[in-house]
Amino acid sequence: MNTPAENTGNPAAHAPGMPVIAVIGDGQLARMMQTEAIELGCSIRVLAGAPDSSAAQVCADVLIGDYTDIGDLRRAVDGADAVTFDHEHVPNEHLDALIAEGVNVQPQPSALIFAQDKLVMRKRLGEIGAPVPRFAAIDSVEDAAVFFDEVDGAVCLKARRGGYDGNGVWFPDSREGLGTLVEKLLSEGVPLMAEEKLSFTRELSAMVARTPSGEVRPWPVVESVQSGGICVEAIAPAPGMSDEQRERAEKLSVSVAEALGVTGVLAVELFEVDGEIFVNELAMRPHNTGHWTQEGSVTSQFEQHLRAVLDFPLGSTETLAPVTVMANVLGADKEPEMSVTGRCVEVWRRFPEAKIHLYGKGYRPGRKLGHVNVVGSDVEQTRKTAAAAAHFLMHGEWDDNYLNKKEH
Amino acid sequence: MNTPAENTGNPAAHAPGMPVIAVIGDGQLARMMQTEAIELGCSIRVLAGAPDSSAAQVCADVLIGDYTDIGDLRRAVDGADAVTFDHEHVPNEHLDALIAEGVNVQPQPSALIFAQDKLVMRKRLGEIGAPVPRFAAIDSVEDAAVFFDEVDGAVCLKARRGGYDGNGVWFPDSREGLGTLVEKLLSEGVPLMAEEKLSFTRELSAMVARTPSGEVRPWPVVESVQSGGICVEAIAPAPGMSDEQRERAEKLSVSVAEALGVTGVLAVELFEVDGEIFVNELAMRPHNTGHWTQEGSVTSQFEQHLRAVLDFPLGSTETLAPVTVMANVLGADKEPEMSVTGRCVEVWRRFPEAKIHLYGKGYRPGRKLGHVNVVGSDVEQTRKTAAAAAHFLMHGEWDDNYLNKKEH
Ligand SMILES: Nc1ncnc2c1ncn2[C@@H]1O[C@H](COP(=O)(O)OP(=O)(O)O)[C@@H](O)[C@H]1O
Ligand SMILES: Nc1ncnc2c1ncn2[C@@H]1O[C@H](COP(=O)(O)OP(=O)(O)O)[C@@H](O)[C@H]1O
Ligand SMILES: [Mg+2]
Ligand SMILES: [Mg+2]
């Protein structure tokens, strides 16, 4: 802490009369907000950890600092019309302090807490009648044993805070395994909760944006395919849903946004079990399952997020194609010998319709390096194209059976 | 000249392993290239006249300098994988010098000359059999008088170089008027040409991208509506053309790109006269009549331009909607009292489907401040929405008859 911020702030980066949004965090979400800010004529000041981070690379007003340091936060938000986030990890006490000083923070910590703490989220969603798996606080090995029996051993243990991409989620398959894990994690000081492990048909994501004034617009619900806890694919709209099911999921996302006072973009991750839906978790920012909107929706989630946090009217969330598929580009175990531009060239040569989005990051196993969006009319064909393109970008070789091999 | 460049060059702005494109010029075209560079993971270094110019505002690697100064140009292109342009005004002798030094300039001066000098362009197009209006070099009042008679007084006088938005185009209505004008302009050292003033039905624009390797992809031909020499609206695809007419215009743009060795995006401005087409002029960069591609085409002209100058495979130019309309936002004589954000809010409240693009420029009469894109299915409805939105952004008041009042 107390890292002195290296302020490379640049007043020339901000257009006359147009709002400035301070974005805390320097990842690909902040980067893609900049893409949309440019077109809106707004501008972004990024609080970044490093000058060559994904977002800092592409912004003209970058402040290098630490998002857990109130001094750095104060410098980053100075003069901004709104403050928003690339991630959920800014300490809420700092946000409360900024709000007390008159800073316009969106979403507010009173909403953010439900994206930060999975137990607090589960309790609140239960209160508002949103469908959630059975769950319990786990403060001891005994709590764990009791819950294990309650759910007949179908248990999912979760770190309450700080998890991402499946880190912080465990599926112990015995009471003993659960006990050992709980004991270890509690002794490390990790606050825990458990929930019923659902045998879901698939995962869905219902995304919505809401403004401080209360305007709300959902996008169509999408199917999201995870592999090892990481989102690898999103299909928009989710195939095979009845109108009634779609509407139910969209209404759920709207009611969660309203009940929790969310502003900006909200992603409601869902499990589909025999046509019923249960909420998994919430994200209060643009989300991996919303990247398809860049090509597939009139208003992308990044533009909508900026408009929402500025309390501007929201844009149309109509789709531009019968189907849009997003496939993530993740670092493989071994970096391909072919250069990244060489891989792009091969992909584009074969698929002129593949929209490659890269985040400016160095190759590292498991790292989210980019994504590919493809719009189309046939679901399976579009999925195949997106998957084959993403696979080539990851591995430097074609594997057209990639889609069939993915865990579902 | 010899202005020392203030190099704010920022190595951290460039992603590992990804190409750097040096863009000469700091206007909205360079700005919108940055939007696409971010998503491609490439990066842009801008040679800008001022740190708060349209493009400099949004780029992380900005060099302040003078594009007519070879020293500034050298610094701007240092280490870049390709060099391209926001405008046509870089002296060709400097570009030749850079090429001799091994710099990858795209498009090359051997092609650029046809976008810089309207007489050279007319001659070359005539040679390759492209349909052009009758024309003549005007080096004296006598030349002008001879040509006036040749075209029965239907004369259009043009400055050979440096014209834009109708500056540098005159329609004298008498032989005397023409003579006086020619005398004045020649005495001021303005090189001139004249061509037949065509009574066109409408103006069209055929856009295409071409790579150094020779891949070519046209977009659908659009109708472009000018008012006072400035493009105010583009309708994509151009309504009411037969398949055969479309194909002829697209083929023409392809053959011009190939014959002239154009690389990057080429706009071929056309006049439609009784179903026949004639070439007006050429632009070798993204063009106002191609802004619709940001929302209406799988690949926008800005992404395509970057891919083309890097000799990457080109993207699909399929449309995403039955019709996309672009309406320009130009500064009116008087700046509205309502703030620019206030105007955006009103437009979005009424038209959630209106995509507003702003260039970060201060308000000035006649200045291109931004544009609005609207995708739709009904041509007249979509035109009305785009026009009403643009009108409000310009004037701060509604005028739904705006479209009908425009000169056609
Ligand atoms: N209760 C559950 N039942 C079955 N699978 C689950 C459950 N909770 C999480 N998962 C699986 O683990 C993934 C990651 O869990 P999640 O709580 O979303 O953590 P993260 O914060 O890492 O995204 C989910 O997308 C899902 O595939
Ligand atoms: N030969 C012509 N006949 C009729 N109108 C013309 C002719 N040439 C130009 N114009 C009109 O003037 C506008 C501007 O001319 P152009 O040569 O394109 O100049 P600029 O470089 O300013 O765009 C055209 O878009 C068209 O409306
Ligand atoms: Mg999750
Ligand atoms: Mg013109």
Describe the structure.
Chains A, B: This is N5-carboxyaminoimidazole ribonucleotide synthase. Chains A, B: It holds the Pfam family RS_preATP-grasp-like. Chains A, B: Catalyzes the ATP-dependent conversion of 5-aminoimidazole ribonucleotide (AIR) and HCO(3)(-) to N5-carboxyaminoimidazole ribonucleotide (N5-CAIR). The structure is a homodimer of 408-residue chains. Chain A is of the alpha+beta class and 408 residues long. Helix content of chain A is 33%, strand content 25%. Chain A folds into 3 domains: 20-105, 3-Layer(aba) Sandwich (Rossmann fold), CATH 3.40.50.20; 134-196, ATP-grasp fold, A domain (Dna Ligase, domain 1); 202-402, 2-Layer Sandwich (D-amino Acid Aminotransferase, Chain A, domain 1). Chain A is built from 13 helices and 18 strands. Chain A is globular. The interface between A and B is large, with 61 and 61 residues. The structure holds adenosine-5'-diphosphate (2 copies) and magnesium ion (MG) (2 copies). One magnesium ion is lined by residues 269, 281 of chain B.
Give short descriptive properties of this protein:
homodimer, 408 residues, alpha+beta, Rossmann fold, Dna Ligase, domain 1, D-amino Acid Aminotransferase, Chain A, domain 1, 9-stranded antiparallel beta sheet, 5-stranded mixed beta sheet, 13 helices, 18 strands, binds magnesium ion
Map the helices and strands.
The structure is a homodimer of 408-residue chains.
Chain A: E1 6-7, E2 20-24, H1 28-40, E3 43-48, E4 62-64, H2 70-77, E5 82-85, H3 92-100, H4 109-116, H5 118-127, E6 135-138, H6 141-150, E7 155-159, E8 169-170, H7 175-187, E9 192-196, E10 202-210, E11 216-218, E12 222-227, E13 230-236, H8 243-260, E14 264-273, E15 276-283, H9 293-296, H10 301-309, E16 323-330, H11 340-350, E17 355-358, E18 368-376, H12 379-395, H13 402-405
Parallel strand pairs in A: 2-3, 2-5, 3-4
Antiparallel strand pairs in A: 1-4, 6-9, 7-8, 7-9, 10-11, 10-12, 10-14, 12-13, 13-16, 14-15, 16-18, 17-18
Helix pairs in contact in A: 1-10, 4-5, 6-7, 11-12
The site of one adenosine-5'-diphosphate (ADP) has 20 residues of chain A, from strand 7, strand 9 and strand 15.
Organism (chains A, B): Corynebacterium doosanense CAU 212 = DSM 45436
Catalytic activity (chains A, B): 5-amino-1-(5-phospho-beta-D-ribosyl)imidazole + hydrogencarbonate + ATP = 5-carboxyamino-1-(5-phospho-D-ribosyl)imidazole + ADP + phosphate + 2 H(+)
Domain ATP-grasp (chains A, B): 122-310
